[in-house]
Design a protein that fits this description.
Elements (H helix, E strand, L loop, with lengths): L2 E5 L6 H10 L3 E6 L8 E5 L4 E2 L9 E4 L12 H23 L7 E7 L10 E2 L9 H11 L2 H5 L3 E7 L1 E3 L4 H11 L12 E2 L1 E3 H13 L5 E5 L5 E2 H12 L9 H8 L1 H8 L3 E2 L2 H5 L9 H9 L5
Parallel strand pairs: 1-2, 1-5, 2-3, 5-6, 6-8, 7-14, 8-12, 9-11
Antiparallel strand pairs: 3-4, 10-13
Helix pairs in contact: 1-6, 2-3, 7-11, 8-9
């Protein structure tokens, strides 16, 4: 049994990951932004730099998932600062604290995103590929760089570059489902942009996998080995839901509705492959998009 500290435990990934750790017999303690109410909670406030350093002694592993949702609200300067600071400041506070402990964790697994690569067209991207230069790429570079104090203190650090996490409990798929059910689904822009995705179950298993694989460190892509174009994603979702996909959203309309966020999240292309996970022997349960969607949406083939 391991003692595992988790930040962002109430988010899309954390709320699924924590019960899996507990089912496996691990002790899970959550970092929370409100006053701790149980022995399995530790208060912290990254905005003010508050954290209970003494309470962080003696954990075997730390999973850091905290960060303001990038699609929560239309971007402006204030929201972009919140997106950046909620990731970079929290990571810096956590890793500097971990580095100062007498009994340090063996491993820190910190979230990142495939936004690191920027808009790269049809280029296949692995962990060795250079970063992009847009806003999200810059955030991801700073986010990952903020783990350096832990790394320098001898803690094994894994930065998980997550693709679009497909879940039946929220996230991107939940937002797309209703328009498609109403027959209003369609590609965005030309539809040629690649979307790198991962089933929530595979994402959770990958987190558990990297905790145990001591050879894995640095950036690790958390994506299906089969990224698809937006047009293919659209056709597949329509087929699974048995709905037409005849209402494309032109790029100008996406930008009108979503502003700068449209280019970063919907129109940019990142064809990312999980080279390190695959080489380490990780097996994806849902490597193909259609099987992933049918499982999540409870739509069997036939």
């Amino acid at each position: 049994m391991a003692r595992i500290l988790v930040s962002g435990s109430s988010g899309l990934i954390g709320s699924t990951l924590v019960p899996k750790f507990q089912e496996a017999g691990h002790e899970v303690v959550r970092l929370v932004r409100r006053p701790a109410q149980t022995p399995n909670e530790i208060f912290w406030n990254p905005d003010s730099g508050e954290i209970d350093r003494a309470a962080l002694e003696g954990f075997d592993a730390v999973i850091h998932l905290a960060g303001y949702g990038i699609a929560e609200r239309r971007w402006n300067d204030e929201i972009k600062a919140l997106i950046r600071n909620s990731r970079v400041q929290s990571t810096k506070l956590l890793t500097e604290t971990l580095a100062s402990l007498s009994v340090k964790p063996r491993v820190l697994v910190s979230a990142s995103a495939v936004g690191y690569y920027g808009d790269r067209g049809t280029e296949e991207l692995s962990e060795e590929s250079p970063p992009g230069n847009d806003f999200l790429a810059q955030v991801c570079r700073e986010w990952e760089a903020a783990t350096q104090p832990a790394m320098q203190a001898g803690i094994r650090v894994v930065c998980c570059r997550l693709g679009v996490v497909l879940s039946d409990r929220g996230g991107a798929l939940a937002k797309m489902r209703m328009p498609f059910l109403l027959g209003l689904g369609g590609r965005i822009g030309k539809g040629q942009q690649y979307w790198s995705w991962i089933h929530i179950s595979d994402a959770v298993q990958a987190f558990m996998f990297v905790l145990e694989q001591e050879t894995l460190a640095g950036a690790v892509n958390f994506t299906s080995p089969n990224p698809v174009t937006n047009a293919e994603f659209t056709r597949t979702l329509g087929r699974v839901l048995r709905r037409p996909t005849i209402f494309p959203m032109p790029a100008f309309a996406a930008r009108l509705i979503f502003g700068e966020m449209a280019d970063a999240l919907f129109l940019s292309s990142a064809r990312v492959v999980p080279k390190k996970l695959t080489q380490a022997g990780f097996s994806f349960e849902y490597a193909e998009l259609e099987s992933a969607l049918r499982h999540l949406l409870q739509r069997p083939a036939g």
